[in-house]
Structure formats: C-alpha cells, structure tokens
Amino acid sequence: MTPVVQAHNLGLTFPTADGDVVALSDVNLTIEKGDFVSFIGPSGCGKTTFLRTIADLEQPTSGTLEINGQMPENARKDRAYGYVFQAPALYPWRTIEKNVALPLEIMGYSAAQQAERIKRTLDLVNLSGFENKYPWQLSGGMQQRASIARALAFDADLLLMDEPFGALDEIVRDHLNSELLKLWERTKKTICFVTHSIPEAVYLSTKIVVMSPRPGRVTDVIESNLPRERPLDIRETPEFLQIAARVRDGLRAGHSYEEMV
Ligand SMILES: Nc1ncnc2c1ncn2[C@@H]1O[C@H](COP(=O)(O)OP(=O)(O)OP(=O)(O)O)[C@@H](O)[C@H]1O
Q1: CA–CA dist 47, 35 (Å, integer)
Q2: Which residue among 36, 72, 169, 192 is least enclosed by CB atoms within 10 Å?
Q3: What are the tens digits of pLDDT across the range 18-62?
Q4: For residue 213, how far is its CA from the centre of ligand 1 (angstroms)?
Q5: CA-nearest residue, atom 16 of ligand 1
Q6: Nearest to 149 by CA among 120, 191, 121
Q7: Given the CA of residue 216, which atom of ligand 1 is nearest to it?
Q8: What is the pLDDT of residues 225-241, one digit of tens each?
C-alpha cells in the first residue's frame, strides 16, 4: 500500500537577511494510512514547517516528499488534506454553518451536498444545534471543533493539525483529546498533529516523532503499543509512562545546555 506521507532526506532552508535558517534537515519519515502521528519538539525545530511542506505551502530545498505517492502540489490540487490551525481562524461574519460551508462553496458543491456535509461534520464534532451561531458566540473549544468540522467537510483522508488545542485550558483539552480519538477511530483518517505536550502526544498517537532544533531534524520515532481504545486514565499506567519517559529522553538529547540558557 502507498504510504500517505513519505519524506526522504527532506531539507528546507529559508534564506533570511541574517543568513540561512535550516528549518528541516535530512528528515526521513513514512506515515501509513490510519496512523495518528504527533510531532513534538522545542520551539523552532521545524514542526510547523514540516506540516506546511506536506500541505505544499512551503517548498523543500532538498530531498523528496510524496503525499499519496504524488508531488505535494498535485496532492493539494486533489484536496488530499484538511488543515486545522493553531487559532480557530473562523470568519466572524459567517455563522458556524457558513464557515464549514466555505471550502465546499469554493469547490462548487451543490446546496444539497453542502447541507448534507455540514450536517454530517457538525454531528461528528458534537456541534449539532449550533449551525446558526456566530464564532464569537461559542467557547474557544467549540470554535476549535468548528475548525475541525471545516477541515473534515470535504472528506480528505489526511488531517493536518498544528497545535489545535494549545490555547485551551487543560480540562477542555482533555475532553477534546478524547473526542478527537473517537473521531479518528470512526473516520479512519490519517492525522498529523503538532504539539508541545508530552502527555497529549502519548495519549493520542500511534507514532510519535521527536524533533530537535538547529537544524530541525527528527531524533526519534516512537511506535506506540498502547491499545486504540484509550480512556483518559490510561495516562497513569506504566506502559503510558514508559513511552512518555522515552519522549522526554529524546527531547533532552536534542537540547544542548547552551540552548536552554
Ligand atoms: N518564512 C520563514 N522565513 C524564515 N525563517 C522561517 C520561516 N518560517 C519558519 N522559519 C524558521 O524556521 C525554523 C522552524 O520554524 P517552525 O515554525 O517550523 O518551528 P516550530 O517547531 O513549528 O516552532 P513552534 O513550536 O514555536 O511553533 C525557525 O527557526 C523559524 O524561525
């Protein structure tokens, strides 16, 4: 089966006024269909850049990257992915339903198809009944769920999520994490998820990619052996803590003392 994402010696250097910034260096990674992959690492290690490169919003300067066996540009044109940003990025003058409809309008779906997809995706993120509300009438967690609905509306198999719950308090975040796992189980999507949180990465993922900065590179890829069914209290089990310890070791190894002071 063709992997969903295949990076081979991938590099990306940004030329800047102060010299080159190596955002990604020699990244080798394979993501299979149905994987839930978290990217974790300190600020500036290239997590967002990697997601943006998958989305064809940045161009690699070396190596190769294939999405569903295609160049990222072709995958983007095929609408291979939905993208959820750090902040909800909803249009305040559009209702929730009209925000979810936006990509469908752009893609020329009929009114009936739009209505069917809006209903299905709002159901999936538990926002039925909020169709006619404006974003500012919803809590931060609900707004982020609406952004997820928008990214799911056109049924892309790949969901790219850049720290979607980073700005939310811990209780809401816990709730959305378990909702996201259920949604992933139900829809069988492939998810790439950026986070700064070790427990979040371990709780959600089938695979954890540990990255380190200067230059941004992958230092460890951890395959999780936790069961797919994950109640929140799985976070207290020895198996969970063992994976978390390995992530922490990987983060520590990628951090030199000079960078921390
Ligand atoms: N357009 C750009 N031009 C120049 N440098 C850039 C650009 N985009 C990112 N960078 C640099 O590339 C490196 C990687 O950035 P990136 O945003 O991918 O890191 P990150 O791991 O997502 O960080 P954070 O956790 O803070 O979001 C950083 O040093 C950043 O300053």
Answers
A1: 17
A2: 169
A3: 899 999 999 999 999 999 999 999 988 999 999 999 999 999 999
A4: 10
A5: 46
A6: 121
A7: 14
A8: 899 888 989 999 999 99
